[in-house]
Amino acid sequence: MILDGKTLSLKIQENLKAVVHPLRRPPKLVVILVGEDPASLLYVEMKTKACKNVGISGELLKFPSDISQERLLDEIAVLNADMGVDGILVQLPLPEHIDTAVILESIDPTKDVDGFHPLNVGKIQCGVDGFSPATPLGVMALLDEYTIDVKGKNVAIIGASNIVGKPLFSLMLNAGATVSLCHILTQDIALYTKQADIVCVGVGKPNLITADMIKQDAVVIDIGINRLDSGVVVGDVDFEAVSKKASFITPVPGGVGPMTIASLLRNTLKAYYINNPKGDE
Ligand code: GUN
What we know:
The protein is α/β, with parallel strands linked by helices.
């Protein structure tokens, strides 16, 4: 069975629209893009377009790739102080001369809709309320929609990035799963995936997960996104073969990707409420 992230994302966006519409002012997200990377530009445009779709004001601030770290920090300080800005997102990766950790730590944690500030990373790990990165949040929402309970399940996550693998590890663990987090140095990924009731993979390698690597009726979540030379977009899973063995599987595109967008919008509304505690509807 297909885990249809596209449809769920649209449903979430319809619900958000109804909540956002009566607010005294629209919630505002500012997205910062440094440089000209075409993939990053595509992503940030998708994010600001989705904002518009639900009535959130999405502003894109573009800076040249040679912007200094100091200037970028100044820009973020202005946004931190602006009561009319609810969410701030700095698209990654940043150019090499900029220290990503310094930039992420400069964002007001109450406006950190990406959940990349160490304070939010820590909160999510502790299982207390904070901003969770959008992709892992989207994965959990998709499983929840299909009433796939992770409590007591064996979960294998392939890919240990700060953006996906590590926060997904925390969310799964806090939801009661037993979690294996595999990474680039893991010698035998299949050892972990074969034991897993739920396999989540996001490393950017087409066909990394083949049918022989998963249990019969496993749930397979493909967080990978790869553009082949032919122009076709695929994930990290051999969908054709694995879908015959899995009980549930996400397609690429149309699985986790749209859920990331929906979760970012949810986080922006959450930031609005934090920054407008009197609930000025
Ligand atoms: N680059 C790749 N994924 C993401 C994301 O979720 N947020 C940001 N800010 N940059 C990214």
